[in-house]
Amino acid sequence: MVKAIATVRGDSKVITISWSLRGNDPNSERGFHIHEFGDNTNGCTSAGPHYRNSEGIIPDGLIKLNRSESIIGRTIVIHAGCDDLGRDENAESKRIGNAGARPACGKSCR
Q1: pLDDT at 25
Q2: Which of 8, 35, 65, 90 is the most buried (most CB within 10 A)?
Q3: Do residues 109 and 72 touch, judged by C-beta distance below 8 A?
C-alpha cells in the first residue's frame, strides 16, 4: 500500500507542494495531479478528472489557495505510473497523460 502526505503552502506568490511517499519502489516515477472533486467516497476514483490541467502540468504560478480557482477542497492524486505529458500518439495521452491507476489520494484542506 502506498501512503503519502502532501503539504501545500501559499505564504508567497509561489505555491509550494511538498510530499512524502512510503510503500512504493523508491526508483519509480509517479504522476501527481490535482483532481476536480474532493470526493473520496469510492476511493481515489471519485476524485474526478484532472483539474485545469490542459497541458499535463500546472505551473506553480497558477495554483491558487483562494477564490473559485482554489485547489482547497479538491483531491491530490498520486498515480501508479509516470505522466507521459501528452507525448504518446493516443487520445488518452493528450487528455490525461496515461499516468495509470490511483493508489493514493487525499483531499486538500485548510
Answers
A1: 72
A2: 35
A3: yes
Q: What is the pLDDT of residues 38-70, one digit of tens each?
A: 888 888 889 888 776 444 444 455 555 666 667
- What ranges make up the beta strands (E) of the chain? 3-9, 16-22, 32-35, 41-44, 75-78, 104-107
* pTM of the predicted model as reported, rounded to 2 decimal places: 0.64
Distance CA 84, CA 96 (A): 9
Nearest to residue 94, comparing CAs of 80, 83, 81? 83
- CATH number (domain holding residue 70): 2.60.40.200
Whole-angstrom Cα distance, residue 78 to residue 101?
9
Number of domains the chain contains: 1
Chain segment 12-34, per-residue pLDDT in tens = 666 666 666 677 677 777 777 78
Q: Which domain holds residue 80?
A: 3-108
Rounded to an integer, what distance in angstroms lies between the CA atom of residue 38 and that of residue 47? 6
